[in-house]
Write a structure and sequence with these properties.
The complex is a heterodimer of chains A (392) and B (204).
Chain A (H helix, E strand, L loop, with lengths): L3 E7 L14 H19 L4 E6 L6 E7 L2 H8 L10 H13 L7 E8 L7 H13 L2 E7 L7 H12 L6 E4 L7 H6 L2 H4 L7 H11 L15 H28 L3 H22 L4 H33 L1 H29 L1 H10 L8 H28 L1
Parallel strand pairs in A: 1-2, 1-4, 4-5, 5-6
Antiparallel strand pairs in A: 2-3
Helix pairs in contact in A: 1-2, 3-4, 4-5, 9-10, 9-11, 9-12, 10-12, 11-12, 12-14
Chain B lengths: L1 E3 L9 H4 L12 E3 L25 E2 L7 E20 L8 E6 L6 H6 L4 E4 L8 E4 L8 E8 L9 E11 L36
Classes of the chains: A alpha/beta (392), B mainly beta (204).
InterPro entries (chain B): Galactose-bd-like_sf, PITH1-like, PITH_dom, PITH_dom_sf
Family (chain B): Belongs to the PITHD1 family.
Protein name (chain B): PITH domain-containing protein 1
């Protein structure tokens, strides 16, 4: 929660066209800049962030230190790439911009993205570093992009000259599959000097730790929150319905308590299996979710048609009530028919049982239960069919 | 403008004169170009301990003798004179420039601005030298910034003690202690007298 004014020096030289960081070095840099701005303003609402460019038309201050995130994101948009980076001038202009910050109580910090070769002499950089240290300005360097011989050495000399009590850091990001912003999140640039990370950084880290293909439903909650929410809600509804079904099954027969749980779990297993198959296809997944929520009326539809078609047309409320009461038992039968087939497959059942904590598939009592369950489910099916015929 | 104590300190308690350090807002002291962050707080102590060089002291960075010390007070003070005890072997500061009631001065500001008063310092190892101020200019000091641009030839500048003599008034500067920020007006926070049942005149 340090009160800080930060100036970010963006490298928009020709070297930033390269694609070794996805999608391009410049894009990766922009993402990192927006992430840093967000983290700084979240950790302390009075923090201010400013941006300047070091290449193209020369060193230009795009935004003086401000706490308005929108302004900074807007000025990052539409930046041109070109020319060569002027590191020394960039740092000096950043220092000047910080000197004229509105709130003198803020600590001064400069964050430099050094993506292209450094053409200045080491002595000059050390001189600049000492001047920064004298005015108690901290410096963070993000070393990425071009791997010039001597570049790392010069930047380390600069860091050593500036560093006062470990308030300045340097991060080296090699090209790779991880995004630049993801790598930066875990560095002291985000987490501050041992504060343990702001909430923003922690949340962002958790989101990215989910991995590119490891999200709950194959959908990034940040990219498409509505879809993710819809999927999550339908999954929870399905789970709730299955719990109700399991409870109903447990009430029906004495020993079915354990079996009902297994029904629900194996049902769950089929559902999730289907889901994982379609995980890559978003629209198919949405269809699945919709289909599952439709499942309930579909199932009850059949029963209603066979049992109470006349009653339905006359009294919709009565039909609704009947439908709801039948839905449970209908689901039961539906689930039982599905499940009985599954139960026939002994290997599947044993694998499901093995995944249950505290259940040993080789236990004799479990095996007995399985056998009794199968016979019971067959019995139930036979019972229900004559029932339906009678009601007709 | 130095003057020496010409009385023995037994029958006059000097320490009570140099008690302005009690009115310094220690949490907000800052210094630029100090080697150890936070070491500046150690130079403000009682008169008796001014020669005590065993503890922490203020040092500048290697190869750079400039120092800038920002001293805020808890209330406005009047400063009569200043005493500086430096380090040995040329590490004592040789010049001192003072700025009054200016926030956030850094080295480039200090070098370009006109100081309110400047002194040439002598090596004051025994702590008996004090430098008088133009008292009329130091009447209501909320904060003072001391700039030491040079020393007596040492690689770094060391200061063991900064003493301030004067008196404190009870006047305080910016007392904006509790502010309630409102993003939107909240009528319940702004009850008028009529609504809360006060006031002399009632209608009806």
């Amino acid at each position: 929660m340090v009160l800080e004014a930060t100036m970010i020096c963006v490298d928009n030289s020709e070297w930033m066209r390269n694609g070794d960081y996805s999608p391009s070095r410049f894009q990766a840099q922009s993402d990192a800049v927006s992430l840093i701005c967000g983290a700084k303003t979240q950790s302390n609402p009075e923090n201010t962030v400013g941006v300047l460019t070091m290449a193209a038309k020369g060193v230009r201050v795009l935004a003086t230190p401000t706490s308005d995130l929108g302004k900074i994101l807007a000025c990052m948009h539409g930046l041109e790439i070109g020319g060569q980076m002027n590191l020394a001038a960039g740092i000096q202009v950043a220092q000047l911009a910080l000197k004229h910050r509105q709130n003198k109580k803020q600590q001064q910090r400069i964050i430099v993205f050094a993506g292209s070769p450094v053409k200045h002499e080491k002595k000059m950089l050390e001189l600049i570093g000492r001047k920064l240290k004298k005015n108690s300005v901290a410096l963070d360097i993000v070393n990425f992009g071009e791997e010039d011989e001597g570049k790392t050495e010069k930047l380390e000399a600069l860091l050593a000259a500036v560093n006062n009590n470990d308030s300045s850091h340097m991060v080296h990001v090699p090209p790779g599959p991880n995004a630049l912003s993801d790598v930066l999140i875990s560095t002291p640039i985000f987490t501050g000097d041992g504060e343990g990370g702001s909430g923003f950084a922690a949340a962002a880290a958790a989101a990215s730790a989910g991995g590119v293909s490891g999200y709950d439903f194959g959908v990034d909650p940040n990219l498409d929150p509505e879809l993710a929410l819809a999927l999550r809600v339908s999954m929870e509804e399905e789970r709730a319905r299955q719990e109700a079904a399991a409870k109903k099954a447990a009430e029906d027969a004495s020993k079915q308590e354990k079996g009902g749980g297994q029904h629900a779990i194996s049902q769950d297993a089929t559902m999730t299996e289907n889901k994982t198959n379609d995980l890559d296809d978003e629209s198919a997944l949405l269809q699945q979710a919709l289909a599952m929520s439709m499942d309930d009326p579909e199932v009850s539809h059949d029963v209603r048609d066979t049992d109470m078609s006349e009653a339905a047309t006359d009294d919709p409320e009565l039909a609704l009530a009947l439908q709801m009461s039948v839905a449970d038992s209908a689901k039961d039968s539906a689930s039982q028919t599905d499940v009985s087939k599954l139960l026939a497959d002994q290997s599947f059942v044993s694998s499901v049982l093995a995944s249950l904590p505290g259940v040993d598939p080789n236990d004799s009592s479990v095996k007995d239960l399985l056998a009794s369950m199968q016979s019971q489910s067959d019995q139930k099916n036979e019972e229900e069919r004559p029932n339906e015929e009678e009601e007709k | 403008m130095a003057c020496l104590h010409d009385h023995s300190c037994e029958d006059h308690d000097c320490s009570s004169d140099w008690s302005l350090y009690k009115h310094i807002d220690l949490s907000k002291i800052s210094a630029l170009n100090e080697a150890t962050p936070g070491s500046v707080k150690s130079v403000f102590k009682a008169w008796e301990h001014r020669l005590n060089s065993s503890g922490e002291h203020l040092e500048s960075n290697e190869g750079d003798p400039e120092l800038l010390v920002f001293i805020p007070f808890t209330s406005d003070v009047k400063i009569k004179s200043i005493s500086i005890v430096g380090g040995p072997d040329g590490t004592s500061p040789s010049k001192m420039r003072a700025f009054i009631n200016r926030d956030g001065i850094d080295f480039s500001d200090a070098q370009s601005m006109q100081a309110i008063q400047e002194w040439d310092l002598a090596e004051n190892m025994q702590g008996v030298l004090e430098y008088q101020t133009r008292y009329s200019k130091f009447q209501s000091v909320g904060n003072i910034t001391l700039h030491f641009p040079d020393n007596f030839g040492g690689d770094i500048t060391k200061i063991h003690y900064i003493g301030l003599k004067g008196e404190a008034t009870q006047l305080k500067r910016d007392v904006v202690a509790t502010i309630v920020y409102e993003l939107m007006p909240n009528p319940s926070d702004h009850k008028t007298r009529a609504e809360s049942g006060g006031g002399l005149s009632h209608v009806g």
